[in-house]
Write a structure and sequence with these properties.
By secondary structure, the protein is an alpha/beta fold. It has 16 helices and twelve strands.
């Protein structure tokens, strides 16, 4: 899922997202609550009409943003009081408020309100947080009951396997439409992250989708898919595009590199996106160094196209029972671009 935090995937319009096969985007309850306000979005006909996106939308509950962005948080049994990162104004979001915001936005998939703990955190603190997240999840479910929205429960537990197992059991007992693995990609190494994914996944229902929140390098997608994860979101493809980093079938390409000053080739000769079909590395480098808006648009279009193709390849490999070979080939090719300039 490309990330459209403010009801917009940065530097790319909905029409172009459709053209490259995007079927669902993520928006954020916290940000839209603060600006322009979920009540305004509701008056405008809901998030689909507001952003001219007729396809599914998933909204994050705001728990992670309260943890990562808000100032002077005060956590209680009822929720979190915090000051806006925009203007310092005082706000409160708890399970009921989060569900009201997501209901008014009109998301197809809503997320329960949770506490995302800092990394690293002491075991006792994480244990208490897991208990609180479970109580909040139950309140979200009770408030949501009967809604047409799907609702996913979020598993927390920090980097402690037993707490991950407990949190997963709590979410399964509450019977949600899907389950998310939260609280990862917060500073831990990849081996720990994969261990937490494996630990959590084995405790979740086999017949419900599993969503890994905020984790999304190509390697992350590959390894998590191998371990049974179904859904992903991350700002990485769009943010990297705006910083001049392109993902290709042969590894990462920094378009501002002097090597590409007079390079007539496309970013990725195995990509069929509009960017690769029409523009050279030299031109994209020129646009980026000139700070032309078109640079961000073309780079973003390519990076999201790359991600869509990668996920399509993973799905096809799973269907054909060739995922191991697909992954082996992926890693073999990731160094080709470096070797080209060594």
């Amino acid at each position: 899922m490309p990330v459209g935090t403010h009801a917009s995937v940065k530097a790319i319009c909905p029409r172009d997202l459709e053209s490259i096969g995007v079927g669902i985007v993520l928006a954020n309850a916290y940000h839209l609550y603060l600006r322009p306000g979920h009540d305004l979005v509701k008056r405008m006909g809901g998030i689909h009409r507001f952003m001219a996106w007729p396809h599914p939308v998933l909204t994050d509950s705001g728990g992670f943003q309260v943890y990562s962005l808000a100032d002077l948080r005060e956590i209680s049994e009822d929720g979190v009081a915090f000051r806006s990162h925009l203007d310092g104004s005082l706000h409160f979001i708890g399970p009921k408020e989060s569900m009201e915001i997501q209901r008014d936005l009109g998301a197809d998939i809503a997320m329960t309100f949770d506490e995302c703990v800092p990394y690293p955190s002491e075991y006792d603190y994480v244990s208490r947080s897991v208990e609180l997240t479970a109580r909040w999840a139950e309140r979200c479910r009770d408030f949501w009951n009967g809604s047409e929205q799907s609702l996913f429960g979020i598993v927390q537990g920090g980097m402690y396997a037993d707490l991950r197992e407990k949190s997963a059991a709590d979410m399964v007992s509450l019977v949600f439409d899907g389950y998310a693995i939260g609280g990862l990609s917060v500073g831990e190494d990849m081996a720990t992250r994969l261990d937490m994914i494996e630990t959590t996944k084995k405790c979740l229902s086999e017949d419900k989708p599993v969503y890994l929140m905020g984790v999304g390098s190509p390697e992350d997608l590959i390894e998590a898919s191998l371990r049974g994860v179904d859904m992903f979101d991350c700002v990485m493809p769009t943010r990297n595009a705006r910083n001049g980093m392109l993902f290709t079938s042969k590894g990462k390409l920094s378009i501002k590199n002097l090597h590409f000053r007079d390079d007539p080739r496309p970013p990725d000769d195995e990509c069929e996106c509009y960017t690769c079909a029409n523009f050279s590395r030299a031109y994209l480098r020129h646009l980026f160094l000139s700070r032309e808006i078109l640079a961000y648009q073309l780079n973003t279009l390519h990076n999201i196209s790359y991600y869509m193709k990668l996920m399509s390849g993973i799905r096809n490999a799973i269907r054909q029972n060739t995922l191991d070979k697909f992954i082996e080939k992926f890693y073999e090719r990731q160094t080709l671009l470096k070797e080209e300039f060594s």
